[in-house]
Structures are given as C-alpha cells and as structure tokens.
C-alpha cells in the first residue's frame, strides 16, 4: 500500500465557521467546497482536514447526527510562545493557555466555533533529563 496523503474528516453543524477558523488562524486554504462540505489543506503537506455538515447523506446513517466531539486535532509547532501571542493578538480565546507536562510536552488548546479542539504542541526536555 502507498499512502499519498492523509485527511481527517470531522462532522460539524457549521462547515463555513470551522473552515474560516482554520483559514484565518492556521494557514489552511480551502481546496474544495460544496453545500455541507469543505476540504482544507496546507502547502507544507500537513494533514488535510475535511468538514462535513451534520446530517449529510454521504455519511453512514448511524453517523449522520454525530458531531465531532472528544477529538483533538494536534499541530506540532516550533515556537509555542510565539503562537500563543499570535493567537491572542488575533482575538482567539485560549481554551487552555500554555501548560507544560512532566514528560516534556508543552501545549495549548483553542476551540473553533463548532467545538472542535485544536492543540498546539511543542516538545521540551522533560525535567530531570
């Protein structure tokens, strides 16, 4: 098997709102869109994200009313402090400001208008290493 790209599909109530959030704050570009659908990607080859409107018939019947919940989309970054400052300057409310875990993960969380959570993570040297 050869995988040529990767995408994650999330079901939301307002496709345009989640799409705009990624375009405005994370450098994504909308590659395709139609009624109830948007596919977004980045030039650097990061994972593509697809938003599908809840209730869309292309979804299997048992998933049509299920919203993206409990899923965190994580982006590894090289300057977490700078990203936090940028997001704040852009008016993005932080769900969780920068926090450092004992195993060396520094992270912050933001949430889009549909409740999709995005984690920005930077790896630090764990204490005692």
UniProtKB/TrEMBL annotation:
Source superkingdom: Bacteria
Organism: Actinoplanes sandaracinus
Protein name: VOC family protein
UniProt-listed PROSITE patterns: VOC (PS51819)
Lineage of the organism: Bacteria, Bacillati, Actinomycetota, Actinomycetes, Micromonosporales
InterPro entries to which the protein is assigned, alphabetical: Glyas_Bleomycin-R_OHBP_Dase, Glyas_Fos-R_dOase_dom, VOC_core
Domain VOC: 2-123
């Amino acid at each position: 098997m050869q995988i040529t790209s990767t995408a994650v599909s999330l079901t939301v109530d307002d496709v345009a709102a989640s799409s705009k959030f990624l375009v405005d704050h994370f450098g994504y570009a909308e590659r395709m869109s139609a009624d109830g659908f948007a596919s977004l990607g980045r030039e650097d080859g990061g994972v593509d994200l697809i938003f599908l409107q809840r209730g869309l018939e292309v979804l299997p019947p048992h998933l049509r009313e299920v919203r993206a919940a409990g899923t965190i989309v994580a982006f590894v970054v090289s300057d977490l402090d700078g990203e936090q400052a940028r997001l704040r300057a852009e008016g993005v409310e932080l769900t969780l400001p920068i926090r450092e875990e004992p195993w060396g993960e520094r992270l912050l969380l933001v949430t889009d208008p549909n409740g999709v959570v995005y984690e920005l993570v930077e790896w630090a040297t764990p204490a005692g290493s």
